[in-house]
Amino acid sequence: MTLSAHELVDRLQNTSGFKILYTYISMALSKVLMEKLFTYDSLVHAVSGAVGASVAMSVLYPLDTIRSRLQIEEGDVSKSTADMFQQIMDEEGVQGLYRGLTPVLQSLICSNFVYFYSFHGLRAVFNMNNSAGRDLALAAVAGTINVLATTPMWVVNTRMKVNGARHGPRNLRCDYRSIWEGLVDIARNEGLSALWSSTLPSLILVSNPSIQFMVYEALKRRCVYLRIPLSSGTVFTIGAVSKCVATVLTYPIQLAQSKMRYSNDNRTMISVLIYVARNFGVAGLFKGLESKLLQTVSTTALMFMVYEKIAEIVFALLKAEGELQRAKK
């Protein structure tokens, strides 16, 4: 009797030998995967990225507050960064510039830890050689994981940060005392879907850090090729350039993201962009770009500088410890 290919596969799958072999191979692959994914290298990169981002945001947070206010306010008069700074100072004082800093830092640490760990963990698992294309693909996957995991935290953060804005889509008083309180309140009063209200633009904006990381890694490799020392100044510069390119290319989507996070009125990203373009012109799609560039370029450049230094120091310490252990043997 001649067996078809499907029948042969079915019989093989039902044999105990095949099951044992399949189990053994699965366990071996899982062990290899875990050994590559959960490594000191990935952990060092994740912690370094999280610390670097929190340091940079702490220094430049007022610019992020101004950028958020400019993006969600819809008054007829278009304000500059300086105008918004003066308005916040006059109406709310210095504390208005730092409103929501603590939850933002908490979210930023979680977000950057997830992103850097995912990126370097995936690179180790797939054993990829460094190249712009591969870095772009890995950054996109890492960014998607980050968005799905941390979007609810950023929805709460946006509302806390812009609490008190005069010309927003609605006058919310989002005076949450913590991220957890905000998560519970939004889920209870608006539904769980409201916590992921900006997921689509956030997923599209995965291209922002992907473009940024691709440009950053490409410029860093170019510096190595040209034998330019990766000093703090050099890393700061290439970090600034990479973020500037990514920000300009994706800014209208960022603006739609902020509006959707602040006002959960079931508008789609496309409808938000059309609304802004019709009522405020093409320039309205880039409202707040000046403060965004000042904030995000400086923050990213400083973050990468701190990240590289921390990673360099930790890896040097681990190497020294390893050499000491070998010397004792």
TrEMBL record:
Gene3D superfamilies, alphabetized: Mitochondrial carrier domain
Predominant location: membrane
Matches recorded under SUPFAM superfamilies: Mitochondrial carrier
Its membrane topology: Multi-pass membrane protein
GO cellular component: peroxisomal membrane
Record keywords, A-Z: Membrane, Peroxisome, Repeat, Transmembrane, Transmembrane helix, Transport
Gene Ontology MF terms: ADP transmembrane transporter activity; AMP transmembrane transporter activity; ATP transmembrane transporter activity; coenzyme A transmembrane transporter activity; FAD transmembrane transporter activity; FMN transmembrane transporter activity; NAD transmembrane transporter activity
Localization of this protein: Peroxisome membrane
InterPro entries assigned: MCP_dom_sf, MCP_transmembrane, Mito/Peroxisomal_Carrier
Solcar repeat residue intervals: 40-125, 130-222, 230-313
Transmembrane stretches, start-end: 43-63, 96-116, 136-156, 269-289, 301-320
Record family assignment: Belongs to the mitochondrial carrier (TC 2.A.29) family.
Record protein name field: Peroxisomal membrane protein PMP34
Organism: Galendromus occidentalis (western predatory mite)
Encoding gene per record: LOC100909055
